[in-house]
Design brief:
Blueprint: H1 14-24, E1 29-31, H2 33-46, E2 51-56, H3 68-79, E3 83-88, H4 110-124, E4 133-137, H5 139-154, H6 159-162, H7 166-173, H8 180-196, E5 200-204, H9 208-220, E6 227-231, H10 257-265, H11 269-279, H12 284-295, H13 300-315, H14 318-332, E7 342-345, E8 350-351, H15 352-358, H16 365-373, E9 377-379, E10 382-383, E11 390-391, E12 394-400, E13 404-410
Parallel strand pairs: 2-3, 2-5, 3-4, 5-6, 7-13
Antiparallel strand pairs: 1-6, 8-11, 9-10, 9-12, 12-13
Helix pairs in contact: 1-2, 5-8, 8-9, 10-13, 10-14, 11-13, 13-14, 15-16
GO biological process, one term: tyrosyl-tRNA aminoacylation
Catalytic activity: tRNA(Tyr) + L-tyrosine + ATP = L-tyrosyl-tRNA(Tyr) + AMP + diphosphate + H(+)
Subcellular location: Cytoplasm
Amino acid sequence: MNQPLVTTAHPVTDRVREALAVTLRGCEELIPKDEWVAKLAKSEAARTPLRVKLGLDPTAPDIHVGHTVVLNKLRQLQDLGHTVIFLIGDFTSMIGDPSGRNTTRPPLTKEQIEANAETYRAQAYKILDPSKTELRYNSEWSDPLGARGMIQLAARYTVARMMERDDFHKRFTEGRSISVHEFLYPLMQGYDSVALKSDLELGGTDQKFNLLMGRHLQQEYGQEPQCILTMPLLEGLDGVDKMSKSKNNYIGITEDANTMFAKVMSISDTLMWRWYMLLSFQSEAAIAKLKSEVDGGRNPRDAKVALAKEITARFHDAAAADAAEQDFVNRSKGGIPDEIPEVTLSGAPLGIGALLKQAGLAPSTSEANRLIDGGGVRIDSSTVSDKGLKLAAGTYVVQVGKRKFARVTLA
């Protein structure tokens, strides 16, 4: 017989327990757990959905798979019937989030923010159900707040508490500059929760201070405080650093299906299971069964292929995922994909380094030479070892690494 998780004014049913399990899957922290259980129980008893908020500042034009860890959680809670609020921080982007930074983050222009926000919205809807998503921009309430409102808001938090924040404290003790406007960022993000009357706010582990600020300000404004759910930062393809474009260890959710599939296949067998927990929509029981089979001798490649197909199909479709699998098999056997870019160049005879650069297969001739030294360049399936090679007029299939191909016609 199931025992109540906590004492609440409403019964903790099996549906509440299921919702709690969905909430906790893969999460880092749920604060405070008992209050979230009480909110879930009240929501079910009243048949009123809870308001679940995720805010993202459109600081870059593209979302990568690492960003989807929190978006996936949002979708899971959306599927349970709760109201999901996808908040685009167009106002807070103009301040610049100092989280985890050793220096002041440069603010974006209004034009950059608008362009990035439109891209974020389109990409987020690859995961969220647009018909069940409340899309908001925090300029809606932040702009009207004005100077008077900003001063009144700032009066609700102390400098001493603000300086407890790790990145501020570290920068202060190291003598690094902290601009006054950076103190406004967590205040404004916290005020978003007041404006939206959120019941739960999601974020990465690096956002914990800001999420707690929202809970504090809701209490200051006489609201029932939100609970907060932090999700881990996903390790990138290297399995070491968090996924980041700057580290070049990422999968962009707008990348082509073949590249996406191949990148998933490149991760380690160990990292694969963490990705399953944070990125897959399979049940925990199904993942545990698959892991048990691998531990019992099944080829881990089978599990990785299933994960690669699931992720690829999510951002493309099942047919594209199947085709990407076949493309990966062909490449692993040294075959040439059915469809590769066609490039026409002039200047024959042309040096191999210049050809790779002009064909977009290497960022520079020096990088092209490095790839040749590493045995990573092939022409018509033959490995190139001579950096001084000059190619006469003709058509060649050029391959760099395992995934880059081009049919180059040189005149």
